[in-house]
Amino acid sequence: MTGHSVLRSAAAAIAVGVAEFDELAAAPESVSFPPTVELRDGTQGLNGFAEVVLRDGSLYTRPRESRGAWRKVPTPGCLDGQVTAVSVDGNMLVAADRNGWIYFDGQSAVGADGVELDVLVWRADLVVAG
């Protein structure tokens, strides 16, 4: 499976709750996770299909209310281990890094013509000005 298809699987799993969770790498056994994710804050979030947590700069996910195995969300090498905050709502996952850059998975973006775009790459073209 290519890096792009793994990212496609992660975005699809987080966005629409499909079976692609099993295609993601298992989380290391040394990382601790909550029994469930019930609230959103800068270190965890949820939507109708997935729970997402931030641990040691990396993102992990599993199907909502499954109590299943946690899986690592594939991110670009420059972002992996550098995430400091995460937000999940609806079909969008947003992450911030140590330098204040904001990244999003872009799932279900809609173009100016109203056509849904198939944008399944991490983007960093939005910067929060201080």
Report helical residue fraction: 10-25%
Strand order of the largest sheet: 1-2-3-4
Tell how many strands the DSSP assignment holds. Answer: 8
Question: Ends: how far apart?
Answer: 40 Å
Rg over CA atoms: 14 Å
The portion of residues forming beta strands comes to 25-35%
Shape by Cα distribution: globular
Uncertain spans:
1-9, 108-121, 123-130
Helix and strand run: HEEEEEEEE
Alpha plus pi helix count: 1
Q: Note the main sheet.
A: 4 strands, antiparallel
Give the total of domains.
1
Oligomer: single chain
Alpha-beta classification? mainly beta
> What is the typical, i.e. mean, pLDDT?
74
Jot down its keywords.
30% strand; mainly beta; 8 strands; disordered N terminus; single chain; globular; 130 residues; disordered C terminus; four-stranded antiparallel sheet
